[in-house]
Amino acid sequence: MAVPSPLDTRPTVAALLALTVVTGLVDAFSYLHLGHVFVAFMTGNVIFLGAGLRPGGAHLLVAASVTGLSGFLLGSLTGGRIAARLSHRPRPWLVVALATETAVLGLVAVLTVGGKAAEPGGHGAYASIALLALAAGLQNSTVRHLGVPDLNTSVLTLTLAGLTADSTLGGGPGARPARRLGSIAAMLAGAALGATLLALSPTAVLPLAATLTATVATTFALSGHRARDVPVPGHAPVPDRRLHRRPVTPSGRPWSGR
């Protein structure tokens, strides 16, 4: 069961589109700056891993892909644990998850400014790949539990398929074309902006990604109302004691119901 957002539909969609821009930024950074590896698009890493395992394949490609996959899985696991503990309180859950992602992005930004992630295949590059993939895995796990249709912030394959297959031209109802097009545009804009900033100043990409993520976290933190308590599957809801209080008479004595 999807966890309800503490924001209304439009602010929630805007927040997830901002996170989609973040995905474009960090994947452009990792692919162009850390040595042909993705930190959010895991399908690409699986393909790179398979290509690198061929006889005479590039061992650096294998190592980078395994590092990215491992970091992503750890981040996804962490996101799942956070959701299992806090998803009955949607606002704190989202703030904790996104603040953690912001901190990880900020840490890699510091490594980049210090020149620790400049050389593909170096220890700094592998550390950056692992940390960025961890942040992406955390984001993906969180967005998955939030369950907003057509906005998973990292993979566009199903979005593109849905856009065409569900269109009136494809014989479908034409549902949510704006949301799907927005997701595609956000990813494209993030990747283009990331590549442009890399050409100008490699140290500017990750601070921007961290700032966008922090802005989304702040938006959820300042949301004007608290969503009703709905746990993720397998998580017991926290009982509201007010619903189980025994009624009392005007004198303050428990009412017997007679």
From TrEMBL:
Residues 228-258 are annotated as: Disordered. InterPro entries: DUF1275 (IPR010699). Pfam families: DUF1275 (PF06912). Keywords: Membrane, Transmembrane, Transmembrane helix. The chain crosses the membrane at residues 12-30, 60-80, 92-114, 181-199. PANTHER family: SLR0142 PROTEIN (PTHR37314), UPF0700 TRANSMEMBRANE PROTEIN YOAK (PTHR37314:SF4). This is DUF1275 domain-containing protein. The lineage of its organism: Bacteria, Bacillati, Actinomycetota, Actinomycetes, Kitasatosporales.
